[in-house]
Design goal:
By secondary structure, the chain is α/β, with parallel strands linked by helices. The chain contains 14 helices and 23 strands. Strands 14-15-16-13-12-18-19 form a 7-stranded mixed beta sheet, sandwiched between helices. Strands 2-9-8-7-10-11 form a 6-stranded mixed beta sheet, sandwiched between helices. Strands 1-4-3 form a 3-stranded mixed beta sheet. A hairpin with a 6-residue loop joins strand 5 and strand 6. Helix 1 packs across helix 4. The chain binds nicotinamide-adenine-dinucleotide. The site of nicotinamide-adenine-dinucleotide has 28 residues, from helix 8 and helix 9.
Length: 506
């Protein structure tokens, strides 16, 4: 397969600017960064990062564009998003392949990522006619109360490497129909995908007469990342990444009373109960644990299995792991591609060593493959709930299997980590399923029955609790985070009654 043809079709040259407002910035001034293909270790292309002055220029343009965008009728904003969705549909195959080349996701997941952007466009177009407020019964005669939603301002969006396009769309498409402009700081590990996506989006926005609504500012943490967090021109920072990132964002943005949406790390568990359909469970667990080479925030990292099924489940999984096709992510038939870089391989090896020291036993996989790129065999580890390493999110395919005796214990183990993103139970017992979903069940933002932990649809609000940050993006009423709420009271009488019966006659 000729990869350079794909890059050319997407309009990508060997060196690309990483900064775009009304137009691409020729010399953004922040030095050059290489993007690598994790399946080969080769350089895919080079990107010119933005320096601090260009960052300021980009945000100025986003502020200027906001003035006109916020008064553009929301359905007209939706029309622009509809056209972005159409343009993404046309380029889906090439953009999907670029995601594969830059992140190592297998082909169907690379294309799935672009499909998720398209789904977000469709969802947001509908939303552009549904930004509803409430009317509220007033306690005062001849008064009407209502709630309305206004655009918030330019939104700063920080994204992680593992969803280099879709997570931006979760934020940007909703923000756009809400009347906000967007400044995107993509991951240093996947800048080409951001640039290719932005080329498509900026072209549509310009043709529609709205340059400056979508802005790209690729750059270092010092020149772009930290300035964004400290920038009062950005009333909302939506950040996706590690819990460490989230703590920093919460602290800095909170200090200036800005708003945040935090989508952070997960340490997701699947419970396998005695009545589980094991054929279904094994398929669901393997996809959740090794899909995207364990590099999803929703990856299943802990498997909590009833003691009566423990040995059988470990045995079946070990056999499934032995057959996993690990290899070039663009090849048909590959299910597990590479990790993102050398550091990720080393972190996985270190976690497996610590698991051994803490009493765990690797029963399948875990080795690095002897070939260029950053390939590993997904690992299955017999473990115990109290092991420190089990409480950590190692961003690699390691599944810790932990036995349990009764559902209370399973739920306690499931909830006994600092993160709270996704969770799942496999059971055919209705009472167990309902307990898992009840207030005394899973404490995660997402709880599933008879499906795994990953592969969420965009229609639901996505996000998690505790150290996962509490943010919600994508569907449901997540749009409310991108707008400001205004409560309005209108007096259409000739008296001035006060609330709570207060008298103040002058
Ligand atoms: P990361 O935290 O290393 O980086 C994420 C982004 O934050 C990057 O763009 C990075 O440059 C930026 N960043 C880091 N420090 C910053 C600072 N001080 N100021 C501004 N920006 C800063 O994460 P990663 O390795 O790219 O991605 C993997 C992590 O992301 C995992 O923990 C995963 O669980 C999480 N994740 C969460 C979700 C979710 O929706 N909950 C989705 C995808 C990934």
């Amino acid at each position: 397969m000729r990869f350079d043809d794909v890059l050319k079709r997407l309009g990508l040259g060997p060196v690309e600017s990483g900064a775009c407002h009304d137009d691409w910035v020729g010399e953004p001034g922040g030095g050059e960064v290489a993007s690598y293909n994790p399946a080969t270790g080769e350089v895919l292309g080079r990107v010119l990062a933005a320096g601090r002055p260009v960052y300021d220029e980009v945000v100025d343009r986003a502020v200027a564009a906001f003035a006109g965008w916020r008064t553009t009728p929301a359905p007209r904003r939706g029309e622009v998003v509809r056209k972005i969705g159409a343009a993404l549909r046309e380029r889906k195959a090439d953009l999907g392949l670029l995601v594969t080349l830059e992140t190592g996701k297998i082909r169907s997941e690379g294309e799935g990522e672009i499909q998720e952007m398209i789904d977000m466009c469709d969802f947001s177009v509908g939303l552009s006619r549904q930004l509803y407020g409430l009317t509220i019964a007033s306690e005062r005669p001849r008064h009407r109360m209502m709630e309305q939603w206004h655009p918030l301002g330019p939104v700063g969006v920080v994204t992680a490497f593992n969803f280099p396009a879709a997570v931006w769309a979760w934020n940007a498409m909703v923000a756009a129909v809400c009347g906000d402009t967007v400044v995107w700081k993509p991951s240093p590990l996947a800048p080409l995908t951001a640039i290719a996506v932005h080329k498509v989006v900026a072209e549509v926005a310009r043709a529609e007469g709205f340059p400056g609504v979508f802005n790209l500012c690729f750059g270092s943490i010092e020149d772009v990342g930290e300035p964004m967090l400290n920038d009062a021109r950005l009333p909302l920072i939506s950040a996706t990444g590690s819990c460490r990132l989230g703590r920093r964002v919460a602290e800095v943005v909170g200090r200036r009373m800005g708003r945040t949406i935090l989508e952070l790390g997960g340490n997701n568990a699947v419970v396998v109960a005695p009545t589980a359909d094991l054929d279904l469970a094994i398929r669901g667990i393997v996809f959740a644990a090794v899909g995207t080479a364990g590099q999803r925030c929703t990856t299943a990292r802990r498997l909590i299995v009833h003691e009566s099924l423990h040995d059988q489940v470990v045995d079946r999984l070990a056999r499934a792991y032995a057959r996993l096709p690990v290899g070039d992510p663009w090849d048909e038939g590959t299910l597990v591609g590479p990790l993102i870089h050398e550091g990720a391989v080393e972190a996985m090896q270190a976690a497996l060593r610590r698991a051994g020291e803490q009493g765990g036993e690797v029963v399948a996989g875990g080795k690095r493959l002897n070939r260029p790129g950053w390939f590993v065999e997904p690992a299955l580890v017999k473990a115990k709930a109290g092991m420190a390493v089990v409480g950590e999110e190692t961003f690699a395919p390691i599944l810790y299997v932990i036995p349990y005796r009764d559902l209370d214990e399973a739920i306690a183990i499931q909830n006994g980590v600092e993160q709270g993103l996704t969770s799942a139970i496999f059971t055919r017992d209705l009472l167990e399923a309902e307990r898992f979903l009840s207030p005394e069940g899973s404490d995660c933002g997402i709880a599933n029955v008879n499906i795994g932990t990953s592969g969420a649809e965009i229609g639901g609000a996505f996000g998690g609790e505790k150290a996962t940050g509490g943010g919600r993006e994508a569907g449901s009423d997540a749009w409310k985070s991108y707008m400001r709420r205004q409560t309005c009271t209108v007096n259409y009488g000739s008296e001035l009654p006060l609330a709570q019966g207060v008298k103040f006659d002058i």
